[in-house]
Design brief:
The complex is a heterotetramer of chains A (160), B (511), C (627) and D (99). Chain C is an all-alpha fold and 627 residues long. Chain C has 26 helices and two strands. Chain C is 77% helix and 2% strand. Classes of the chains: A mainly alpha (160), B mainly alpha (511), C mainly alpha (627), D mainly alpha (99). Chains A and D meet through helix 1, helix 2, helix 3, helix 4 and helix 5 of A and helix 1, helix 2 and helix 3 of D.
Chain lengths: 160, 511, 627, 99
């Protein structure tokens, strides 16, 4: 259990950093850290494949994209972008309220939260699920990604 | 009986016509007009073929085509016509054929106009020939919606001087503009559709047959307890389209703002969809419910007749006069339906056809007069008979049909309805009915007098008569009016056969 | 097909063909003269055929009837159309075709100044008019009568409004249509109710049923009363007579046709046609007798002061129609129909002669005429013949028929109708001779240069004049032979009344004295000017004004139309529709729009603020869920 | 072992993300906060997957990650485009949706 807390506490701290940091670059770094730590959480939850995907795809892809975007905008603006926040009190109250509600439900839940075993040979099962049962959504996703890439290129182009 | 799929062809011809027209280059002046004309001509020929081939001795639904579409939900592609729908298919074919010619001179976005017109008419044909309630509703919506664009794009606006305590309100909602009319019409009809959808789905549910098939539902007896509240729902839903009082006000505004062919189709055919729906779905599927509520149907119908006629008398705008006369005449249709007896229902269906053709003629003429004189205000007109004798003659024929002059089809219809009205439980319906016919005479002849008679206004000395293709519409429509007036039995015979089948559902229900 | 059928078709079809040809072949119609000749040829063919038909039918009275299905039914007997020919119909066909052909020939002269296109239209209408009237006459069913009845109304509308650019003509045309149409509301109701209770429109069947007593008396009375409203409209009975004088706005030959043989005769003919039904509805018969005799008197008084030559004739027509109705009301088809027969000739004659005068003078005002006997000798003679016939002076045609009516009315024992009938004799003679003296003999110099009309106009006039002289004594026996028995049937029904009264032998002499008295008085006032008519006018000023204003009947009708219908009910309805029914709709629209305008302030475009809304909503829902 | 702490962790991260979305003025920052929220939901998904012994949750998280990448790509493109148009990257100054 201690491993969990070892990961969870920095995770929360990094997350706070993401939303509170004044420097956009730092926020991005914190986000990257958050995502990596999340991958570790996945490992704890016996979702190894997902953990690796998280690091490869998410952390790599998203963080890189964000850095690109920031640099691009900064080049256009011509100066460093400092982050500002608005309505900190209101935001805090609202998000705390949501948190309270969520925990209220978690506390009042009658569910049995103990772990049940995964099937034998987890990766085989995952593979079957992904490429047999859900092959159609999987393929649709690839189309979506393609479309997103094309769309992003088209939208971000300077002149048309 | 083996036959080629006539009904599918009737549906396909305008639909393909619409597609073909859509893909024409827009500078092809003749092609975008000839293609719709050919499509409409094909449906006309096919509908006449139907009329000739329909076996009156057998009756019932004929020319049936049946293929399952979604068998799990009991939805199928099921087409067929009986005498009643036959008459209306015949009517629709005539109106669209002449409507194409009547809008020959539209120059703005002609291609799109004809595409929408043909789509609309596909929907109308679909409603009349489908024997599956799901299909029925689908086509119904297809018929209702293109109107929004037809009025909104090609319509005409008219400035109405705001007056009285509601002046500000009237100005703010934009009464008189084509956008207002288009929106009003569409919202009203969708309001009705909501009721229809609820009604149809409830029928589907309570019948417990898991089918939308009309024939199967027809053979099944819906629980009378449900019928009692289902009938008013269906009545209101279809009634909106049939222009029942007090849900009729979309009709004058809509018809006045719509372009000629759209008014012709809408007043001539679409309003009949409503009446047809009440008779077909309301009465045929729910005889007990209909019997229970027929007093309401008939009372509202008589209000329609008298009120519509009197309102028409007040109007000074030619299109509004014709539009209100439609409200009045739809009252006769509904009154005939409410009598629930043979002459009344015969008259009702016959009036649907007769009024459709008549109002098509009148709207075509109003369109011509407007196009040439550039005004719809009858007080600004006068002595037009001298410059446009042809239009005056046809207008007179239309007007005389409207007031029920014998020898023209309107008389046969009205007289049959009157015959039925006296034999209905509420015999006193006859009196407002006949009085309405008198009021019609007053406003029709008054309008004719003001427009065509009287001293000639020199302002209009260059007014031309109708030309070229316009004659086609006028001559064909008037010809049918006279034909149906002199030999009504050619149409009445198949109608009668179907009406008797409908009435057989009422055996033991009517006291 | 037997001979009667062929002949009937020969009577009916030529005008129809002429109408169809002239109507559809537009260049032919626009040419004018060819259309006219075709129409005349057609009506002459009909006339000859109708003569042969009458001869055949009178030799063996029939009745002949044959029919076709028009509207099919399954639960009810199909509605039929067809023909029903008996002596009544056959004679009526002769009258109609005769007068129509005379009028059409005469029109060639009268309408010679019309442009060709307009002339073609005129003759097209005429053909349709003849066809409609002939169809009405030969109809085998009440529905068919109604159909042609309305067509007759249509044609009179078209012909009265022939000069449609004249506002007065246009107004007169629609007035005629509306008034008769109002009566037809009753007619339509009547036949609908009758059908509901007998299941048929066919005349033979109805006659059979009523003879067999299969129709309840109350229903019969109700329906016959309603049908009579239709006849009142067409035959211009009080109070639906108002259209007829205005109908003078049409060309004069049209007036002749409408007044003599077609339009107005239709009402009388209808009552005579279905007389077997009426004879079983006694209360309605009495009503008819009172209405008829009152109309006769009422119209005659108005005619006394009219200054328009055609209007005098118009009111005299109303008056004579009243006579006919009164005769039918007391149960004498013979008297009524005989008067219709003779009246057709001399009234057509009078109108044609008046037309000839108007054609020459270009005015209708009798005070602008005078001493026309000299320049228009032929017209004067025929006009006087017509007048004598109308006034009921022997041996002219009117004497026989009118005498017959008066005898029957007095015989019936109804006091008021009898008094009306007798007074009208005097009035008729007076006002007709007033016109004769003023127009043809007075000392006033006529304005302009009157001249005799061409032969194409005088020819028909002479022909009709001859008939006006001889028709009375020549045909009286014939009518008595064929229509006398109907009266007997009536007598049995009204035994008591008939037995109580007996006709004094001096009655014919009294009527003759009354007529001659009227003539004498007119002579004294207008020719000798022994009594000054201006003085009379001043002395009886209130009465004069009342008559001049036609008892304000036109004003009442105008008020009803203008203020009650168009200015009252329709305004209420139209206003209610626009501001209440539609107002509510617009109000809903307006409220929606207004509330939208307020609510849109919430949409400030900052997405994050929307998110607060989402959270707030979420919390709200959860709280709702918990409590 | 129970998954309760994992789920709690997910909730906390979600709230933090929400806080970020609500308070950041910078559109890129908002996008990052959204990433945080999605990430939180993925944790909860995987936790539940573990709890039920059902692989569906993992798969769903997998799909979410993929879609998120696409979303970020398009989202950043939009940000750049809007920036060019409105010359600002502050979300509360971009009020094209204003009624």
């Amino acid at each position: 259990m201690w491993i969990f807390w070892l990961i969870a506490i920095p995770l929360v701290l990094f997350a706070l950093g993401v939303v509170l940091s004044k420097n956009l670059f730092r926020s991005t770094i914190y986000l990257g850290a958050t995502l990596v730590l999340t991958a570790l959480i996945y490992l704890l939850l016996h979702a190894e494949l997902l953990g690796f995907i998280q690091i490869l795809l998410y952390t790599g892809g998203v963080a890189t994209l964000l850095v690109f975007a920031i640099m691009l905008t900064q080049r256009i603006v011509g100066e460093d972008i400092t982050q500002q926040s608005r309505g900190l009190v209101g935001g805090a109250i609202a998000s705390l309220a949501v948190l309270l509600i969520l925990f209220f439900f978690l506390g009042s839940s009658q569910l049995d939260f103990s772990v049940r075993p995964y099937p034998e040979n987890l990766n085989l099962a995952l593979g079957k699920n992904l490429f047999v049962t859900y092959v159609l959504p999987f393929e649709v996703l690839s189309v979506l990604l393609l479309a997103a890439i094309i769309g992003a290129i088209v939208m971000a182009r300077r002149d048309r | 009986m083996q036959h080629f799929p006539v009904l599918s062809l009737i549906l396909l011809a305008p639909f393909l016509g619409a597609l073909l027209t859509m893909f024409q280059p827009k500078e092809a002046y003749y092609r975008v007009r000839i293609i719709p004309a050919i499509a409409a001509g094909i449906t006309l020929i096919l509908s006449i073929y139907l009329l000739l081939k329909y076996d009156r001795s057998i009756g019932g639904f004929q020319f049936i085509e049946h293929y399952p579409l979604i068998p799990q939900l009991g939805i199928s592609y099921h087409l067929g016509v009986d005498g009643m729908s036959l008459a209306l298919v015949f009517l629709t074919a005539f109106i669209i054929f002449t409507g194409v010619f009547a809008s020959w001179t539209i120059l703005e976005r002609t291609k799109e106009f004809y595409t929408l017109l043909l789509l609309l008419v596909t929907g109308v044909f679909g409603v009349f020939v489908s024997l599956d309630l799901f299909l029925f509703f689908l086509f119904y919506e297809l018929a209702v919606l293109p109107m929004y664009l037809l009025i909104g794009v090609w319509g005409s606006s008219k400035y109405i001087k705001p007056r009285g305590i509601f002046a500000r309100m009237i100005q703010e909602v934009g009464v008189g503009t084509k956008e207002y009319a288009a929106m009003k019409l569409t919202l009203y009809l969708l309001f009705g559709s909501a009721f229809i959808l609820v009604g149809l789905l409830t029928i589907y549910k309570v019948s417990g047959l898991n089918t939308f098939d009309f024939l199967e539902l027809n053979a099944h007896k819906i629980d009378p307890r449900y019928q009692k509240f289902l009938f008013p729902i269906v009545y209101i839903g279809f009634g909106v389209l049939a222009g029942i009082w007090p849900l009729h006000t979309w009709s004058p505004d809509g018809h006045a703002s719509a372009p000629t062919a759209a008014s012709m189709l809408h007043a001539g055919v679409l309003m009949k969809l409503g009446a047809y729906g009440v008779v077909r779905v309301g009465m045929q599927l729910m005889p007990q419910g209909a019997t229970e509520w027929v007093w309401l149907v008939g009372t509202i119908a008589t209000i329609n007749i008298v009120y519509g006629a009197l309102s028409a008398m007040w109007q000074m705008d030619l299109k509004y006069i014709v539009a209100y006369s439609s409200v009045s005449h739809m009252g006769i249709v509904m009154l005939g339906a409410a009598t629930l007896n043979e002459p009344g229902l015969n008259g009702s269906v016959f009036q649907m056809v007769s009024h459709g053709i008549m109002t098509g003629l009148l709207f075509a003429l109003v369109g011509l007069v407007y196009e040439k004189a550039h005004t719809r205000d009858i007080l600004a007109m006068g002595g037009f008979g001298k410059r446009m004798p042809g239009i005056a003659t046809f207008f007179t024929i239309g007007g005389l049909t409207s007031l029920g002059l014998p020898g023209l089809s309107g008389f046969v219809a009205e007289f049959l309805v009157f015959l039925g009205a006296w034999q209905a439980k509420q015999w006193y319906w006859l009196v407002p009915g006949v009085l309405g016919a008198f009021f019609t005479a007053v406003y029709v002849l008054r309008a004719l007098k003001i427009i065509f008679w009287g001293p000639f206004n020199e302002k209009y000395k260059d007014l031309p008569d109708a030309i070229g293709t316009e004659w086609v519409a006028l001559a064909v429509l008037s010809g049918v009016l006279i034909l149906l007036g002199v030999v009504p039995f050619i149409l009445l015979h198949p109608i009668d056969v179907s009406v008797m089948e409908l009435l057989s559902k009422f055996k033991g229900v009517l006291p | 097909m037997n001979q009667v059928q062929v002949l009937t078709l020969l009577v009916l079809l030529p005008p129809l063909i002429s109408f169809a040809w002239n109507g559809v072949v537009i260049p032919w119609r626009r040419a004018g003269k060819p259309a006219a000749w075709l129409s005349i040829l057609a009506i002459l063919t009909s006339f000859v055929a109708s003569l042969v038909l009458a001869k055949t039918v009178l030799a063996s009275p029939g009745p002949y009837s044959w029919e076709w299905t028009w509207l099919p039914f399954q639960n009810f007997k199909p509605i039929i159309v067809g023909f029903y020919i008996d002596p009544l119909a056959a004679l009526m066909l002769v009258v109609v075709t005769l007068v129509a052909s005379m009028v059409q020939i005469y029109s060639l002269g009268y309408m010679s100044e019309e442009p060709a296109g307009s002339l073609g239209r005129y003759y097209t209408y005429h053909s349709l008019f003849s066809f409609a009237m002939l169809g009405l006459t030969a109809s085998a069913s009440l529905l068919q009568i109604y159909i042609f009845w309305e067509l007759v109304g249509l044609c009179s509308y078209l012909l009265i409004g022939f000069w449609y650019q004249k506002p007065s003509a246009a107004n007169a045309a629609v007035k005629a249509f509306w008034t008769t149409r109002l009566g037809d509301v009753g007619f339509a109701l009547g036949i609908v109710v009758l059908w509901a209770h007998t299941g048929t429109f066919a005349l033979p069947e109805l006659f059979h049923k009523v003879e067999a007593g299969q129709i309840a008396t109350s229903i019969l009375a109700l329906t016959m009363l309603l049908v009579f409203f239709g006849a009142m409209g067409k035959s211009a009975q009080f109070p639906l007579h108002i259209w007829l004088p205005d109908a003078m706005e049409g060309p004069t030959p049209v007036s002749a046709l409408i007044h003599a043989a077609t339009m107005v005769a239709a009402g009388v003919y209808l009552v005579a046609r279905i007389f077997p039904l009426y004879s079983h509805a006694e209360s309605v018969m009495t009503f008819i007798a009172y209405i008829g005799s009152f109309t006769a008197f009422f119209a005659a008084t108005i005619a006394l002061v009219q200054e328009d030559i055609k209007r005098v004739l118009a009111y005299s027509t109303i008056s004579q129609l009243g006579y006919m109705m009164a005769a039918l009301g007391v149960g004498s088809v013979m008297a009524g129909f005989f008067h219709l027969f003779t009246h057709a000739f001399f009234k057509a004659l009078l109108f044609l002669a008046a037309g000839s005068v108007i054609h020459a003078m270009h005015t209708n005002d009798i005070w602008k005429m005078g001493r026309l006997a000299k320049p228009m000798k032929q017209t004067a003679i025929v006009f006087i013949i017509g007048t004598l016939a109308l006034a009921g002076v022997p041996p002219f045609a009117g004497y026989f028929s009118k005498d017959e009516i008066i005898i029957k009315v007095v015989e019936s024992g109804m006091v008021l109708p009898a008094i009306f009938a007798l007074a009208t004799v005097f009035l008729t003679a007076f006002y007709m001779f007033r016109v004769v003296f003023v127009v043809f003999f007075s000392h006033r110099e006529p304005e302009g240069h009157p001249h005799e009309s061409p032969a194409v106009m005088t020819g028909p006039m002479w022909f009709l004049a001859a008939l006006s002289v001889v028709a009375g004594f020549l045909f009286k026996g014939l009518f008595e032979k064929f229509f006398g028995h109907a009266a007997e049937a009536m007598e049995t029904a009204q035994e008591a009344a008939t037995a109580a009264s007996h006709v004094p032998g001096w009655l014919p002499i009294l009527t003759l004295i009354l007529a001659l008295g009227g003539i004498l008085l007119a002579y004294l006032i207008y020719q000798k000017e022994a009594i000054s008519h201006e003085r009379l006018r001043a002395q009886f000023r209130p009465v004069y004004v009342m008559l001049q204003k036609k008892y304000w009947m036109d004003d009442i009708a105008y008020f009803l139309y203008r203020r009650v219908l168009v200015g009252g009910l329709s305004v209420i309805c139209g206003w209610f529709d626009r501001y209440i029914v539609d107002g509510i709709v617009n109000l809903v629209t307006w409220l929606t729009r207004k509330s939208g305008e307020i609510l849109r302030l919430l949409q400030n475009g900052v997405v994050q603020d929307y998110l607060y809304g989402v959270i707030f909503g979420l919390i709200l829902f959860i709280l709702l869920g918990i409590f | 072992m129970t998954v309760t702490p994992y789920i709690g962790l997910g909730f906390v991260l979600f709230s933090i993300g929400l806080f970020g979305v609500l308070t950041r003025r910078n559109t890129v920052g908002i996008l990052m906060a959204i990433e945080l929220m999605l990430n939180a939901s993925n944790i909860v998904l995987v936790a539940f997957s573990r709890m039920h012994g059902n692989l569906g949750g993992q798969l769903f998280a997998f799909f979410t990650i993929t879609v998120t990448v696409a979303e970020v790509a398009v989202g950043l493109a939009i940000v750049i485009q809007v920036f060019r148009l409105k010359k600002t990257i502050h979300a509360d100054e971009i009020t094209l949706l204003k009624g």
